[in-house]
Design brief:
- The protein is elongated, with a radius of gyration of 30 Å.
- The longest helix is centred in the last third of the chain and has 19 residues.
- Helix content is about 20%, strand content about 30%.
- Strands 7-4-6-5-9-8 form a 6-stranded mixed sheet, with no helix packed on it.
- The chain is of the alpha/beta class.
- The mean pLDDT is about 90.
- The two termini are about 35 Å apart.
Amino acid sequence: MPISADEALQIVLDQVAILGVERASIGSALGRVISEEINSPRDIPGFANSAMDGYAVRAADIARASEGNPVRLRVLETVAAGMVPTCKVGTGEAARTMTGAPIAEGADAIVPVERTRGTEAAVEILASAEKGAFVRPRGEDVERGDHVIAAGKALSAADIGMLASLNRAIIDVYRRPRVAIVATGDELVDIDQVPTGAQVVNSSAYALAAAISEAGGEPVVLKVARDRAEEVRARLSEALAFDVVLSTGGVSVGQFDHVKQALDDLGLRQLFHGVAQKPGRPLKFGTMDERPVFGLPGNPVSTMVCFYLYVRPALRKMGGRRTFGLPRISARCATDIRIVNGLTEFVRVTLERRDGELCATPTGNQSSGVLSSLGRAHALLIGPREVSLLRAGDQATVLVLDDAAAVDTEAFFEARLRQAN
């Protein structure tokens, strides 16, 4: 008896855990999940500095300055970024100061060069400035002891820059799961071979490899296993050297579907075989030596939908992420959508704004062999198992595949915020 999609996901997540920690250089850490808390050991910046090219002055000296009533000041020196001022600014004095350069002692404001005129030795200030104007104070970015990056965060480009500012060249990150992909079938040829007769290109392996990388894993595509029991078993044995095993095809009930038997022979502790969903009903899942093993259906859309629903959350959990599933938002059905009663159907849809609402439209042919319809999809609309028809105007839950499809919705940002936390 097939179990529900929710039950299947819970079983998968209950069987996986964070893999462990390794050291990584920040040059290779983009997108990695940091495993340590990062606090600042010092103030950044470590000194007050200028936000503009201009002149460091005493605000009191230029309180009444204007174009009609300029205030003339003596220029003591020029301070470039990286230099330390040598003079103290007193009454009637200024220091020519470049962007990022320290503020000279005695000065408390910067006047941008556009509001001045003058020579090397003197400057006329053409506008007043408040105390602190265009001055970046010490510790403006972070102060000593500030919590900068939380453990469990996937590092962004800005995070990498922040770590560099803190002199953290090497950090602790969660290990990325290494995932073996075993494709099976006599009909499969590789990407460099034009299919003839009844052959098809092994597209699912490449789609899975890309999706694994996107989810934070390290994919390894093994040699295709032909439809012979001993070859399928040999390839699956090879795959057991990895953290996660994915096989595609061979989990149904056909004469040449050898994966199920091979997994059983190798000692799979089967936890379920069959999920009450469309596409992807024949999904098989279990563990061998505590590593998760997914027997994915062979049809390309079924393969990818099962990956998004079950494998992706498992990889994210193993890699230290704090949230696992695709972002969920609500959308209104743009047209009637027929679904299979008794199964949770994941309908490929596009999303667009209509009259201020997000609307979902099926991408066309929903056959499990039509991969192009998944490529056009922004999301998977969840068709509840207890109904057979969603009418135009009905609200539905969708799982977002393409971030760009929903970036103008508050609900999407809320979903992303929940993922970030």
